[in-house]
Structure formats: structure tokens, C-alpha cells
Fold:
Amino acid sequence: MSSRIVQVIIMLAGWAWLSACDVKTTEDPRCGDGRMQPGEDCDGADLGGRTCLNYDFYGGDLACNDDCTMDFTGCIATGACGDGVIQTAFGESCDGDALGDQTCESRGLAGGVLACNDDCTFDTAGCAICGDGTIMDPFETCEGDDLQGSTCTSLGYYGGNLACDGQTCTFDTGNCATYGRCGDDEVQAGEACDGANLNDRNCESFEYYGGALTCGADCQFNFTSCIEAGRCGDGILQTWREECDGTEFGGETCRSLRHWSGTAVCNGNCQIFGCLDVTQIAAGGSHSCALISDGTVRCWGFNSFGQLGDGTTTNRLTPVQVTGLSNIKEVAVGNDHSCAISNNNGIVYCWGANNMGQLGDGTTISRTSPTQITGLINASAIALGMQLSCALISTGTVRCWGANT
Structure:
């Protein structure tokens, strides 16, 4: 409200107080006689030559109340600067707190707080003026070449040249954007993902069994949901898909899984291996041998000639491993000697009694461990008798050695 209107209100209050007093004059003046005496603002039609304009109103009809105070009703209807109503017809841009939905920005300024002067014109002192050389935070971020030390990289971009927009005094990041940043939905070097762009990856592509892969604020994958679904190698046994995981076997052993023997080991696919099974049995006159799934041979029984192949002549009540044999595909047992065929070129090895040359090594010396048959390869099958041995060759021919009585 303008200072003039305040003065009017104070004056009116003073005259109202005086009119309540019993004023005595020699001429016995009174309110209502049509003549304005001291103590009266007006009297009837006598307004002392004043109009609404004298009280800073824009117009209207000034009148006099019955108590000889001014009646501003007609003036107020026309309006005045300070009444809180914008009279654009009388050149007001604003009035008090009424700004007509105008802001610093709508006035073409960078930002800030727009106000109204006492003369009902805009007060832009609180607005940031782009180009005045002063950066008003937070409405301006730069002025000309003054970037306040900011660069494309400090704003999170991966490169580029930062500039200042001469119209708004805010950063122009156009050149920065050509280098990209985390958060632009484009996957750049060093980023695994960006926003909703997962670079065509999902939990399954990381060998998880399910879940919803998401992208973190650092443009790296968030595996939380994937981890909940699990995967081979997390040390948690998902029995619906895994036999084992790391050292977790769910209490199972080779024997509980109905294998002959062995130590359970978990492979990279969370499947159990290392368990052993018997793939072939051969029995002779006084001893027996078994071919094991790992390509080794176990023998037991009478061993006076070394026919068990463990390097001794000790009889065995349970299977012992034949020394030096691996990658075997077939085993055969005679009376007091044993032979086996290797997957390696069909080489044949024999051990045990050799009194009739049944081991085929060119001697009659008994062997307690396997010895290779001289000059024999590509054997596909083998059969042993009491003191002789025969092999079927891959060409369809047969070779025999030992007793020939």
C-alpha cells in the first residue's frame, strides 16, 4: 500500500476522533451546514476542491460522508497503486504481491525472485541478469568464459568442451554430450550398461538360473536379483538343477549315489565326477580282475606268481590296483597270469606266471607288475588260457603266445 493511502487513512481516523468531540465556536459551526470548517474533511458538496486523484487514486467520484469525512468508495472502485490489484489500464505491471504470473524467467532474465516496486513497476533486483558479469547462484551457472572451474568431465561426461549459453547463463553441454555420460542410455567404453540399456544381457547370460538384471547408477550391472536365483559356483546347492556346488554335495557320497568307489568331486557344471564304477569283470583259476571306469585295473585273490600285478606276491582278499596301468579298455585273466589292452594304439600288457612264455615279453620270467608284449599293437580283444594268451588284431587276424603242447 502506498504511503499516500496510509496518510489518508490516518487523517480520516483523526477527523473521526475530532468529530466525536463537542466543539464550541462563536459562529456555532456544525457538520452538515454545507461549509467545511476546521476539523472537517468536507461538508456536503464542499470537498475543499479535492478529487480522487489527490489521494493517488486513478479516478472515480470523491464524496463526503454525513460525519464530514471523505467517502472514498467511488475512488476505490477505480483503483490505485497499492491496492493489491493490477490495473493495467493505468500502467501498472504489478501491485504488491500480485505479479500477474510473471517471473524473472518470463521477463527474459536468468532466474531469481521477481518483486514489485511501490510505483507498481517490476523490481528485478532479485533476478539474475545474464551478461552482467555476475553469476547469481543457483540461477546462473556461468557467465561468458567464466565456467566456475567446471568441465565436461566434472559434470560426469567422458570428454568434450564445456561452454556457456549466452542467453541463459547456464552450461551448454552440447559438445560434452557427443562423448556420452553414464545416464544417457547409451553404453560407452567402460560402461557395462546404461539405464534401461543392458547391452542385450540378462541374468542367464552370466550363467545365473534366472532373475532380473538391472543397471546401477554407476552404469555397472546390479546382480542382486540374479544372485537370489542362484547359479553354479555360488556354493549353494540348487537341488532342482545341481548335483553339487563347490564343496556342497547335499550329504551325498559316491557310495550313497550307488557307485562302486571313488571320491566325489564337483565340476564346473555342478555335476559330480570322480566316482568309480566297474565296467568289466574277468575271473581266472585262482584270482580275479576288474576294469574300472577311470581306465585302471583292480585284482584280488591268489598271487604267488604276481598275477595281481601290484608288485608283490602277497595274496589279497580285496581288490588292489595294478601298478602302472591307465587308459585300459579291456582286461583278461588266465590261470596264473593276467593281460590288459590299452586304448593307446591297442598295446597289450601282461603280468604273473611266465613259465611257458605266456606273458609274451620274450622271456619265461614271471612278472609282479605289467610288462608290454613285444611287437604287438592294434589289439581289439584278448583271451587267456591256462598257460597261453591270444589277441584279436584290428585287421581281423589273431596272435597267440605261450604253451603250445
About this structure: The mean pLDDT is 90. Residues 3-19 form the longest helix (17 residues).
